[in-house]
Amino acid sequence: MAYNLLKGKRGIITGALDANSIAWKVAEKAHEEGATFVLTNAPIAMRMGEIKKLAEQTGSEIVPADATNVDELTTLFTRSQEILGGKIDFVLHSIGMSVNIRKNIPYTESNYEYFMKGIDVSAMSFHKMLAVAKKLDAISEWGSVVALTYMAAQRTYPFYTDMADIKAMLESIARSFGYHYGLDKKVRINTVSQSPTKTTAGTGIKGFGDFYDYANAIAPLGNASAEDCANYCITLFSDLTRMVTMQNLFHDGGYSTTGVSNEVMQKLGVE
Ligand code: NAI
């Protein structure tokens, strides 16, 4: 059911790679809720062609941009305002990639070139995006920016390797930039810490399937789906959450505050 929560709002949605992507669901929901938006992804992801289907489905234009490239981000924010006819009201940062994870390199043996690449793509890109938007004054007052993160920023998950440190940086950027952008232009910046989700980025992590089941067995509500995550993002883009900023918001069915569950105890053979 749609509530017209984003009626008249203009947005930029990054990271929709295929129908499993969290960003894909956010785009579908934002469309249902009355928003108009530009879709963007790295030029290499564009070649896969899937994003064009989403653009057709939601009546959106695509502006390719490598999120590590300030010039391309400048074009993205400039073109998006032209296409949509005004300042941007909401931005989704849904970008994550670790070469160390892709290559199955253990955390203690991290390759530093890959580590730097991971930082640039998955965390610094958020700073760059915000800095470009602020310089261009491209986001309207009370606009809302959301980036997706994972709880490995607070607690250790050995298989999440360098992405744990990178997500900690991402969350810190939301707080640091959130202060400055909030003070100057009342722009809100938050991170949503999402349950394990079966996407290209998610399933690329070693042992993801078992871990997904483990988290599902801990969380009293079970794992939050990509669609649930999209719904939560929509509320954060809406005017109903206008005083929420600089927060890391857990969206995980209660996982992050559950010590252990009966289900897991039973699996361990404890009565
Ligand atoms: P996904 O693989 O569908 O999305 C990742 C996106 O990042 C892709 O669209 C990819 O093309 C884009 N990307 C990579 N390098 C880029 C670059 N240089 N410039 C622009 N875009 C680039 O996977 P998913 O899961 O939807 O990931 C979205 C976000 O959600 C990521 O930040 C991820 O870390 C986060 N997240 C995912 C969880 C999961 O279990 N899947 C759990 C918690 C957070």
TrEMBL record:
Keyword terms: Fatty acid biosynthesis, Fatty acid metabolism, Lipid biosynthesis, Lipid metabolism, NAD, Oxidoreductase
NAD among keywords: yes
Domain of life, per lineage: Bacteria
TM ranges: none
Short name of any one Pfam family annotated for the protein: adh_short_C2
EC id: 1.3.1.9
Similarity comment: Belongs to the short-chain dehydrogenases/reductases (SDR) family. FabI subfamily.
UniProt name for this protein: Enoyl-[acyl-carrier-protein] reductase [NADH]
